[in-house]
């Protein structure tokens, strides 16, 4: 097996997806899977918000880090499933992340072609 941890996550998620789909005889199209996974992802994000104690109008309990971490891992499961169903592998996700992250830094530095992002103003010439 690949030593790349992201590739391992993709591999194990694909194994799990195949098992669930086979065992439960689920035959949705890739588009339908992405829709279902996006909905599940939103539900899991809601659970993250709950665990992060978002209710400012009440006295919060301490955050249970273990539960919060579990919900974040659930988010990752559905996100990776969506990537797989969209035809995105670990390397493509990694390269896409690097490119987008570089662009995000350029935006913050005022070097992007898209206006309105710069945290640092370009000097007038």
What does this 3D model show about the protein?
This is dUTPase. It holds the Pfam family dUTPase_2. This protein is mostly helical and 125 residues long. The chain has a domain at 26-108: MazG-like (Helix Hairpins), CATH 1.10.287.1080. 65% of the residues lie in helices and 0% in strands. It contains four helices and no strands. Helix 1 crosses helix 3 (65-85). The longest helix is centred in the N-terminal third of the chain and has 22 residues, at 30-51. 7% of the residues are buried. The mean pLDDT is 93.
Spell out the blueprint of helices and strands.
Layout: H1 5-23, H2 30-51, H3 65-85, H4 90-108
Helix pairs in contact: 1-3, 2-3
Protein name: dUTPase
Pfam family, one: dUTPase_2
Organism: Sulfobacillus harzensis
Largest sheet: none
Total DSSP E strands: 0
Q: If you compute it from the alpha carbons, what radius of gyration comes out, rounded to the nearest whole angstrom?
A: 19 Å
- Beta percentage is under 5%
Question: How are helices and strands ordered from N to C?
Answer: HHHH
Given helix and strand content, the structural type is: mainly alpha
Q: What's the architecture of the domain at 26-108 in CATH terms?
A: Orthogonal Bundle
Task: Please mark out the parts with pLDDT under 50 across 5 or more consecutive residues, or reply none.
Answer: none
Q: Under the CATH scheme, which class of the domain at 26-108?
A: Mainly Alpha
CA(first)-CA(last) distance = 55 Å
Let me know the CATH homologous superfamily of the domain at 26-108.
MazG-like
Q: Please give the count of helices.
A: 4
* Shape verdict: extended
Binned, the helix content reads 55-70%
CATH fold descriptor of the domain at 26-108: Helix Hairpins
Mean pLDDT: 93
